[in-house]
Predict the structure.
Amino acid sequence: MVQNIKVEQLQNPPGEGNYLCKDCHTVFVSFAPRPLEYLQIQDDVTYNGLYRPGEILITPANVPLFVRWKGEENCLQIQIKSKFLDKIAQETLDGDSNLFKLMPQFQVNNSHIQGITKILFEECQQELSKNQLYLDSLANILAINLVRHHGTTKPVLPVYKGGLSPYQLSQVFDYIDAHLDQNLKLEDLARLLDISQFHFSRLFKQSLGLSPYQYLIEQRIEKAKQLLKQSNYSIIDIALNCGYSSHSHLSKQFRQVTGMTPKAYRLN
């Protein structure tokens, strides 16, 4: 599960309810297969409309919400810790981030948020997932999207050029190599260089052309290739040694990258 974000699917018969979360902002994404009529009240504003699949309701922390829906409800509820979003705002905004506030909004169309939340939900369903770096990256992207597009003010974002230095990259590469079998976190990599997660991700990709998660997968697959050819370890042992939770987890990703299964690669 993501440290700063909780993702949950809500499936309810027609009804109504009140909602209040004091320490988390909440994003609701409609997953109903057909448009669903909602009556919603938040921040002293009443809204009535048909939510189509993918449309979003944004409810800031400590804002009471009343909802009534006519039909079978199916939506994702994503709770984002307010301290986490404040931290992202401080790291990404050029100026006084204390002025940033998330804005209550009805029936939002944001394909980026829709896509990110769907992937987050799918990843969180994998009980033995060792994709913490991927989940952290998605959480950061979601938070940055909210800061950029759904605040009370339009931020001016700083521009970073030049990427990471060779020495900094070497530090990151060495750390990843030494911890390939572990569930690496984005904050661990950023802390190595004493910079924010947002800046680290941006600068890393500028330097390498790959996201930190893409590089991690590349290195895990390379190590798996080496062990498949140069050792007699079982495939499950190789999977665990390379940071995968199961034989099938390794096989799926190995095939995506190489076009063949680990067994076929060993025999080739």
